[in-house]
Amino acid sequence: MKKMGDMLLKREAFSEIVMGNTAIVRAMVEAGTRVVSAYPGSPTPEIASAIQSIPKGDRPFYFEFSTNEKVATEIAYGAAVNGHLSTVFFKSVGLNVAADTFVQLSLMNIIGGMVVVLGDDPGANSSQNEQDNRHYARMSFTPVLEPADPAEVYRFYLEATRLSQKHRMPVILRLTTHVCHAKERVAFGPWNPVPPNDTPRFDPANGAYIPLTTQAIEQKRAALARLGQVRQWAEKTELNRFVDNGNTARGVITMGLPFLSLMEVLDGSSSKPDILKLAYVHPLPREKIIHFLSSHQEVKILEELDDVAENQIKAMAFDQQLPVKIIGKTGLEDWIGEYTPDKVHLLLATIWPDMIQSSQTAEADDPAPHRPPQMCPGCGHRSAFHAIKQALAPTDITVADIGCHTLGFLPPYEMGQLLMCMGASTAIGSGLRLFNTSRKVVAFMGDSTFFHAALPGIINAIFNRHPITLILMENGTTAMTGHQDHPASGKNFNEATDKIPVRQVMEGLGVKHIFEVDTYQQAKLTEMVLEATSIDEFSVVIARHPCMLKFTREQRKNPNYRQKQVAIDQGVCERIHACIEIFGCPTFTRDTAGKVTINTDLCIGDGSCIQTCPTKAIVPAGKKDKGGAA
Amino acid sequence: MKAFSIYLTGVGGQGIGLISEIILRAADHAGHRVKSVDTHGLAQRGGIVVSQIRMGDTVFSPLIPSGQADLVISLERHEALRAAGTVLKDRACLIYYNTVWQPLPVRLNQAAEVTENDIRDLCRGRGIQVISVFQTDLPDIRMQNMAVLSEIHRHGLIPGIDRKHYQAAMADLMSGAMLEENRGLFDKRLTT
Question: Which one of B44, B60, B122 has the shortest CB-CB distance to A260?
Fold first, then answer.
């Protein structure tokens, strides 16, 4: 078996099949990156998996999962002003959390160099929006490199570190979902480890590091000057690509993954536009673009999401009074979704129908019933929602937060009727409670999110006396993103650490009414929620059960582990279907006659369903199923 | 070689990632230019998992243009119908593991469960070859993917990949008992 950790530390040059998220870790090793920090979020967690494949003692850099993206950014910044080349990575919307710190970075003299790796998510595959983070780059005068595939992820990261070290400024490497998760053979360079210089090199004289009063203005001036130098380099870099198809009439300016879609669509076409693929999407290489515009009659700006490049390129053409026709976004749909080969085909067929014929066949209808994601068999959240629902009136208001428990909004539970972002539920719930005495308000929160961004909202609820109930769905891990540890786990990425128990934090904050129960004790949980919501003060219910996906995976590693299951006692079952329609575990399967059986591929035998059957027809398999197990 | 596009699908937890990476690496061992992409999303929570593999010298994007898959590999019956209906070329091939993980609308009695006949009917009209795989005595449901992989090889569904390439790919990704068990199952189906 090929060990990823060994591969990532090879001294000699080699090539290997890797995903973008792995390629970047080899680039970190080769670049001499010394400090890496992150908060888990799709599409980036596999970067940490690759880091974890290198044994801690052999890892040439420090890595941590910080409590949130802002903290992670501050860790990387602090290390970088001490002279260490650093990197922080997180998902698209993580930049909103990090923003307060991030927007200041370019004002600082970052002597060690710092790369900010963003996992943007066109198509909102696993995010609450598809925000285009190039806007932040423009606002903060931060350069952005945008690779299209794993080979470019590797090369562009190395470029970003060189640039960042040279100009002592932050540089963004903007990845997107299908760049992070694409796999291909990538050729890597050799690694010649240089003993790191761990001298703390922070010196206020390197600053200014205090952006106050007139100094902030000077720092902005310096940031703009640095950005100007990067623009000059962006003109020359060999990372830009020009595809010369000998077409003086038509050209396309593009970047990132849409470039590959474009090449795909043009393959086999008899006439093709010239293509300028940009490596730097901020700042744009002005001279290069003007030259391209000047040498074509029509230029299509093919950019995913927003018209960030388009507006700048149109301004260049205006300033230069160029006669070129620039085709940008033509309709609402051009702003939306990933620029897949299908999408690019449609765009080109609309503007250049003589070159790209529109697809003859309409997109086929999906012939199968849709399949929404759902909570796993045995999930403690399912038991929780099942029990909590019984304690609330249909008019009561439930506020969701980010995490696996968000899926409670789906039928049959429909718990969690609003969702915003990490940690927002308590304060949104508090707002919903104002002038509202007739409808109870219950907010949900995961335990990783509790530490990430929930504390200010909770403190506010205590401080300003908002009488809502917060239900803390504690599963002991950061489940949605792949079971990363969090501050209550007693373990960080590298070692055992002191637990910060959720309950003690609540008590320390002064929460007077705290209830606590394992979610499999459904009747007790219902009772507690009834009691908590009847108190006219802020109350908390800790609804606890370990993530069963993680738990079962760990159990399977034990050679003596035997899979348990439940069965339906068909002699007792009255086909009321509470197991399917109210409790809703995916293990329960219904045939056309309404008979309920157990999907033995799925059942983990947790037994949390047994208490939900009004006729007691769910039994442990192999025990008293007198009617014959299904 | 001419472009050849493989669309793999199933439900989170079925082992799409492993079978996809074995095929990707087998194609590479066989000397093909190849790239792939996985769609993870919320797959771990019982949603749909998709992996796309594209072989050939003229392939640029890892994403298969709609209706252009040469082969669909599904580890579940509903997902087999969905992929055959939405991404597969006419006169191409569908291979699927014949198990059912009922999606929510089926369990809630709002939609009918997809049957083997549904798949046959859809594919017959479009000249699609259908191979259904099922093995009653699997030691572990997580080996359904290996039963399918073995049939893919037995029927020669992916051009230019030999047994030794699949075996080398498995050895890249697994070791010890897991490798033995999976390779054992792969080989056993080829000889029976």
Answer: B60
Q: Are the Cβ atoms of B45 and A590 closer than 8 angstroms?
A: no
Residue in chain A lying closest to B61 (CA): A260
Q: What does pTM read for this prediction?
A: 0.96
Secondary structure element (H or E) that encloses residue A457, with its range: helix A455-463
Cβ count within 10 A of residue A556: 12
For B34, the domain range is 4-191
**Cross-chain Cβ contact B12/A373 below 8 Å:** yes
Instruction: Please state at what angle helix A522-534 crosses helix A380-389, rounded to 10 degrees.
Output: 50
Contact (CB, 8 A) for A421 and A376: no
Instruction: Give the list of residues 6+ apart from residue B120 with CB closer than 8 angstroms, or none.
Output: B130
A300: exposed, middle or buried (Cβ count in 10 Å: 0-12, 13-18, 19+): buried
Q: How close is the nearest chain A Cα to the Cα of B155, in Å?
A: 26
Taking only the tens of pLDDT, chain B with its 192 residues reads 679 999 999 998 888 999 999 999 999 999 999 999 998 666 567 889 999 999 999 999 999 998 999 999 999 999 999 999 999 999 999 999 999 999 999 999 999 999 999 999 999 999 999 999 999 888 888 899 999 999 999 999 999 999 999 999 999 999 999 999 999 999 988 876
Q: Which domains does chain A have, with CATH numbers?
A: 2-236 (3.40.50.970), 241-351 (3.40.50.920), 380-553 (3.40.50.970), 562-629 (3.30.70.20)
Q: For tokens 């025990």, name the residue.
A: A623
Closest in B40, B47, B113 to A181, CB measured: B40
Q: Domain containing B39 — which CATH number?
A: 3.40.920.10
A503 membership: H or E segment, kind and range: helix A502-509
Cα B69 from Cα A557, distance rounded (Å): 37
